[in-house]
Amino acid sequence: MERFEIEVNKKGHLTKRESFDLEFKQSFHYGDSLHFYVRSLVGMANNRGGQIVFGIKDRPREPVGLQNDKFDNLDPTRLNAIILEYFSADLSYSIDSFKWRGRTFGILSVQEARVKPIVCRKSQGKQLREGAIYYRYRGETKEIRYAELAAILDAEREKEKKLWMSHIQKIGAVGPSQVHILDTARGELSVGDKTVLIDSGVIDKIKFIREGHFVEKKGAPALKLAGDISGVLDADRIIYAESAYPYTTAHVLSETGINQYEFQAVAWKYKIKGNQQYHTEVTTGQKSKINKYSKAVIDLIRAEVRRDPDIINKVKRQFSTWKRKVNQ
Fold first, then answer.
1. Tell me, what CATH number does 108's domain have?
2. pLDDT, position 188
């Protein structure tokens, strides 16, 4: 995606107009406005990606710049919480600012979604409607029309068909007995009847190799596993708790958009506490400890919510039933 650049005519008016990948706002606000911004980002992601530019006056379109530092102080976790709570998938977005003729402008950029459509799973006032699919048309974001939705569904089916054909061809080339399954969301590799847990840092590298273009030395393996291993780490280094488990409970709640009780239910359901893939205790004093979590916890929760948007409520009900039985 090309970075937005300001171009004006002799009257000082912007030469570019709003389009399917470009939206202008004069100022940036918090509160309910954040839901509108996220809706626009989702609409663009359901199309081909795009940008919201803040600091552009309407009628006529003049680059006046932002009048305060609200945009510069925007915490991404506020947008993340809305995305995770109200939509069926994450967004790949960025927050940037730039200066032009001494004035400051803000940009929210979003990439085209890898899996479409992204669906609104919860209503919020007049901003969001449960079950709606928002789509960016030329100059406006609104609920998708049949033609665009049909095109998205056809494209997704074609992508899935090609992916299955590619997998089947690879399995046929190496033989079914030599094929193992890597779950990058949970960080698990199924090898026969055993499961190997892989460190999140290694998972990130594997994703990078998978999604990019990687040239390996002829005959050299991309990843070597040996023995019964739980938590595969580089052989030449040790990962300390702070780097392997960088998240506090508060961080996990902010990143996933769930509350304290919901996280207790999730931790119970998926046996997170005491599982080295997800959790460790860090000693902070002679008698004090704090819980720290790996990125795999956040990936797990997001993956489960994508699989079933109502999973958090279901887990809460199961957790409440279990607590009542224990306390009887």
1. 3.30.950.30
2. 63
